[in-house]
Design a protein that fits this description.
Length: 409
């Protein structure tokens, strides 16, 4: 069994109430959608609702002050976890999708500006740009990926020009699991004075992300994919850029002053956080990164790779199973996507749940353009995290083999 620093997955599982309830009876391999939560995250959420269920930054009574302090603490913990540096602010959003929309809709793009994405993006980094094409007259172009889902850097270089204002790419694909090389991409963009936004939804939970070292302009996150409560995301971005952006939504908590004819916005991050926030979720997110930090991201990455090597080698031995994306687990340590000959991905997911209580994702994974490109109607995806074990990977592969033997045509 692989080691997670000083801990092993058996120890880690003791921190997750899910395993108190289900023991080894369920195999949870849908962490790329949402991870399970450790007890400490659930505890701070309950604590918020029982001990200080107030709002931050408005009332000045003792409970509200406590919320303000805990929200500030969570913001600081997440900011530090990503080494965001003094020049970047962290804006809380309800998910990664909202964080991308804050940038797409709020950045002062002009008609004719070009935004580059790729052909393997999640719809969250696809649809907002299509809206901006319609509403603001920007142009969107897609950089090619090859048949394994690896970004074609030559194509990126060819598509760069003085008209490209922003390069907006998924740091790691939720379908293939492949990561792009951020430093190389940022250097290419810088040579053309273009800004870079990276969608870190599938990266931040699995590897060390150092925003200062990367020197990225905008980085977006899903806290629910990294042990945090559901419905919390974040945008971490350069203050000088945020200061020149329009908030996606406006209202309470965002202004220094307002009249009937005018208002003066607060500096970032407050100007982007209108209305009452998900305080329990934010405080829980702070605890989630504290927990992850106590394990260590290098250990997380190492553990996933260890599991994925076992899983991949067993899957490759099953006739009728086709892996989507690269065959090498080193290129996609957190997940494996696949199809079974003669069965739809939803059939595979439902049967594998029925046969072995294995919980995986199926379908188009909000990446319809990618599946159109490769001419497939979706795939099944098993995604791994710190609580998964090698015996679980073996059971998964054995059940899949049985499934293929029984149902595949
Ligand atoms: C690569 C990628 N980007 C964005 C998202 C959207 O994340 P959220 O559900 O937090 O908006 C996902 C969700 O699966 C994703 O995998």
């Amino acid at each position: 069994m692989g080691l997670l620093g000083d801990m092993n997955p058996t120890e880690v599982r003791k921190d997750f109430p899910f395993y108190d309830k289900f023991g080894d009876s369920l195999i949870y391999m849908d962490s790329a959608c949402q991870t399970l939560r450790p007890r400490s995250v659930i505890d701070v959420i309950v604590e918020y609702y029982t001990d200080y269920p107030a709002c931050a930054g408005r009332s000045v009574h003792r409970l509200a002050t406590q919320v303000t302090l805990r929200v500030d603490e969570a913001r600081g913990l997440i900011h530090d976890f990503f080494n965001a540096g003094p020049e970047r602010s962290l804006v809380f959003t309800k998910n990664c999708t909202e964080a991308i929309n804050v940038v797409a809709k709020g950045f002062p793009f002009k008609r004719g500006d070009v935004v580059l994405t790729s052909d393997v993006e999640h719809n969250s980094n696809n649809l907002p740009w299509q809206q901006m094409v319609r509403q603001r007259g920007i142009r969107r172009e897609c950089v090619r990926t090859d048949e394994r889902g690896i970004l074609d850097l030559e194509d990126l270089k060819e598509k760069m020009s003085h008209r490209v204002k922003m390069v907006s790419l998924g740091h790691t694909s939720n379908v293939t699991g492949v990561s792009i090389p951020p430093r190389e991409i940022i250097e290419i963009a810088r040579d053309h004075d273009a800004l870079v936004m990276l969608d870190g939804a599938q990266t931040a939970p699995h590897q060390r992300v150092d925003l200062c070292a990367m020197d990225v302009d905008f980085y977006t996150l899903s806290l629910h994919k990294m042990l945090g409560p559901s419905g919390v995301g974040a945008l971490i971005a350069r203050d000088d850029l945020l200061t020149n952006m329009e908030p996606l939504i406006s209202g309470g908590g965002t202004v220094e002053t307002a009249g009937h004819e005018e208002f003066t916005l607060l500096p970032p991050p407050e100007r982007f956080e209108a209305g009452l926030l998900n305080y329990a979720g934010i405080i829980g997110s702070g605890e989630a990164v504290r927990y992850l930090g106590s394990i260590g991201m290098d250990e997380v990455e190492e553990h996933e790779l260890l599991l994925n090597r076992v899983l991949t080698s067993m899957l490759m031995d099953i006739e009728g199973v086709e892996i989507i994306g690269p065959l090498e687990p080193e290129l996609r340590p957190s997940l494996v996507s696949f199809n079974v000959q003669g069965l739809s991905s939803h059939d595979v997911a439902m049967i594998i749940d029925e046969m072995g209580k294995v919980l995986i994702r199926s379908g188009m994974h909000c990446a319809h353009p990618f599946f159109r490109k490769i001419g497939k109607n979706g795939c099944a995806r098993a995604s791994l995290y710190i609580y998964n074990t090698i015996p679980e990977c073996r059971s998964f592969a054995q059940i899949l083999e049985k499934l293929v033997g029984t149902f595949s045509r």
